[in-house]
Design brief:
Distance between the termini: 40 Å
InterPro entries: PfkB_dom, Ribokinase-like
Number of strands: 2
Order of helices and strands: HEHHE
Strand order of the largest sheet: 1-2
Helix content: 25-40%
Number of helices: 3
Radius of gyration: 16 Å
Organism: Ixodes scapularis
Structural class: alpha+beta
Strand content: 15-25%
Pfam family, one: PfkB
Shape: elongated
Protein name: Carbohydrate kinase PfkB domain-containing protein
Length: about 70
């Protein structure tokens, strides 16, 4: 290390086992209803996931059981 600072990038993606499985099942299910049941934090990450919610709904994923908790 030469003491210099090197810029980097940080990215956020919405995943995790439950969300990924629900996404895949929605894509594979045809007419069957798939529901994501989960809790998100009462913080900026939870807010970001809920802001991404319309994209999940457009896929046909029922996100009505995603709750917010401290």
């Amino acid at each position: 290390m030469n003491g210099q600072t090197h810029g980097g990038r940080i990215g956020t993606s919405f995943g995790g086992v439950a969300r990924n499985v629900a996404d895949c099942m929605t894509r594979l299910s045809g007419d069957a209803s798939v529901r994501l049941v989960s809790a998100v934090g009462w913080d900026r990450h939870g807010d970001a996931l809920l802001a991404h919610n319309p994209a999940m709904v457009r896929l046909g994923l029922d996100t009505g059981r995603v709750s917010i908790g401290p």
